[in-house]
Amino acid sequence: MDARIFDGRAVHELLDFDGCIAAMRAAMAALSADPREQPLRAITDLGNGKMFGVMPGTLSATGDFGAKMVSVFPDPARPGRTAHRGAVLLFDGETGAIVCIADAEAVTSIRTACATAAATDALARADAARLGLFGGGAQAETHIRAIARIRRLERIGIWGRDFLRAESFAARMAEETGLNIAAVADPATLAGESDIICTVTASAEPVLLGDWVRPGTHVNAVGSSYAGPVEVDGALVAKSLYFVDYRRSALAAASEYLAARDAGLIGEDHIRAEIGAVFAGTAPGRASDGDVTFYKSLGHIAQDLAAARYLLGRSA
User: Fold this and answer.
1) Are 91 and 99 contacting, i.e. CB atoms less than 8 angstroms apart?
2) pLDDT of residue 74
3) 3-class secondary structure for the chain?
4) Can you tell me the distance from the alpha carbon of 277 to that of 32, in angstroms, rounded to the nearest whole number?
5) Are 120 and 218 in contact (CB under 8 A)?
6) pLDDT digits (tens, 9 = 90+) for 135-191
7) Cα gap 31→300, rounded to integer Å
């Protein structure tokens, strides 16, 4: 087997944010234009907060295919958080050979933020300059770095259940990026002063409420990737223009959408479009500066495969 292998360090060295954002746009546009149905991810509950996930599929833009296999286990070094370990396997669409094996944790951390940044670029107001992050883990870090590439951010606020930890995270990120970043103690205050909001938590209950979100805000809900945990309340889902990465996945696993639908707050037609259709110009995005737009990020194997193909190109 002649597959190239990229460990976590190699992924972080080669998977640059600007290039990955462009790769996410192309991959998601191709996914939405492809009439073939992609399989849903399979998640096996191993008990005690442990899970094993398999995400198979194809990369419509190139004909490549593959899968991500990942374990999600409680991280004893970081109470309340999980460790994601596994691999992204990319098969060449012409030969059927495995051509890339990449560290799944590193790929996921970067490609998720880059997909969010691409969606934010398409849906947020052009003058959006204040970012609010709910959560202070690895995804919060990559989301700061990615979104700073598509908007000129004047201020970034960080909220977390542990304010001292949020302060420490904000101080480190401010030093590393040179951006104006500070912890905010009150989540309602942070939401109300933000043009762009990202929820990147492991919370099972809403940390962001619709009443807090001003007209014109763009929201990215990223933390919950399977049916069950909800980061935002039904009121926010109901008041927003709601976009998803892949409709079939959202109907099966977008917790916030499912909870709002089951509560009778929205109908089956509440999903406006897949984000790939917005990228391609075949579906409208924001209609006015007063709209609240919402991007639900579940993640799709097309994003992982696009990142792996980009890694191959960068290493050639």
Assistant:
1) yes
2) 82
3) CCCEEECHHHHHHHCCHHHHHHHHHHHHHHHHHCCCCCCCCEEEEEECCEEEEEEEEEECCCCEEEEEEEEEEECCCCCCCEEEEEEEEEECCCCCCEEEEEEHHHHHHHHHHHHHHHHHHHHCCCCCCEEEEECCCHHHHHHHHHHCCCCCCCEEEEECCCHHHHHHHHHHHHHHHCCCEEECCCHHHHHHCCCEEEECCCCCCCCECHHHCCCCCEEEECCCCCCCCCCECHHHHHHCEEEECCHHHHHHHCHHHHHHHHCCCCCHHHEEEEHHHHHHCCCCCCCCCCCCEEEECCCCHHHHHHHHHHHHHHHC
4) 6
5) yes
6) 999 999 999 999 999 999 999 999 999 999 999 999 999 999 999 999 999 999 999
7) 10
State pLDDT tens for residues 180-229. Answer: 999 999 999 999 999 999 999 989 999 999 999 999 999 999 999 888 89
Residues 29, 272: contact at Cβ < 8 Å?
no
> The whole model's pTM is what?
0.95
Q: Give the number of residues written for the chain.
A: 316
Q: What is the mean pLDDT of residues 19-25?
A: 98
Distance, CA of 51 to CA of 311 (rounded, Å): 27
Question: Using an 8 Å Cβ cutoff, are 242 and 270 in contact?
Answer: yes
CB 17 within 8 A of CB 149: yes
Angle between helical axes of 138-147 and 17-33 (0-180°, round to 10) = 90
Q: 239-271 in b/e burial notation, b at 16+ Cβ within 10 A?
A: bbbbbbbbeebbeebbbbbbbbbeeebbeeebb
